[in-house]
Every structure is written in C-alpha cells, then in structure tokens.
Amino acid sequence: MNTIDEVIYTGRTHTLGGRDGSARSSDGRLDIRLSPPGAAGVGTNPEQLFAAGWSACFIGALGRAARVAGVALPAGVAVDAEVDLGKSGDGFALRARLSVSLPGLDTAVARTLIAEAHQICPYSKATRGNIAVELALA
After folding, report:
1. Are the C-beta atoms of residues 52 and 81 closer than 8 Å to each other?
2. Residue 1's pLDDT band (boundaries 50, 70, 90)?
3. Rounded-to-integer distance, Cα 80 and Cα 138, Å
4. Is residue 71 a contact partner of residue 109, using CB atoms and an 8 Å limit?
5. Report field, pTM of the whole predicted structure over 0.85
6. 110 to each of 63, 95, 128, how far by Cα in Å?
7. If 0-12 CB within 10 Å is exposed, 13-18 middle and 19+ buried, where does residue 10 land?
8. Does residue 38 have a pLDDT over 90?
C-alpha cells in the first residue's frame, strides 16, 4: 500500500444518482451530467473520467521523468487512454490501455520515459496489480 507523507491536494466531489446523475466539485470547476456507457443523451461516465484523469496525470509524470533524465519533452505530447468496463465472473472489472505520443523523440528514450512515468504516476500506482494495463508508444 502506498502511504502519503504530505497531502498536496484533495479533490472533493458530490455525486447524485450514480451513472444516471450528476457530479460537482466543491470548488464548482467540475459540474457534469453522468450517463451509463453507450447511453443516448448527454453526460459522461466514470470510465471516461478515469481515462481523462489518468492520461493527464501520466503526462505530468512524463514531464518529471524527462526532467530527471535531462531530456526535453517534445511539443505535442499526448496520451490516448482507453478504459474498458467488462464483466468478470459475477461482477465487473476494468482494463486499460495508454498509448503515448512523444513526437520526434528517439524510440529508446521514449520507451524509457514511458516506463519511468508508469512508476511515478499516482494513477499507475493505484492500478498496479489491480487491473490489466497495456502501455504503448504511439
């Protein structure tokens, strides 16, 4: 289990209605409608939110890995995240894929940064050993 020595930030949300409801952050910056995956109408779903949060965090971890390695991160860094919701036995489970674009960076350097970012990123740490994760260089 990971431990925290010092809290840097706490995200707070209030959610009503689950997948057919809404969520709002305590500071009002996030105010969204929720809907089940594949449903018609407006709203996002937890899997999309998780994919967005993880990919944003992973880009931050790439930046840190690059700084430590003395490598300049190229412009246009992007992460395409896919989070699958599936059935597992009598319950449900998640699976994820992160495709990382580091345009113009040497392939070996890019792969090293991706591997290091996966060790740094809090989302990667939280999912390690809990869900199947595939990392790819786009």
Report:
1. yes
2. confident
3. 9
4. yes
5. yes
6. 12, 23, 21
7. exposed
8. no
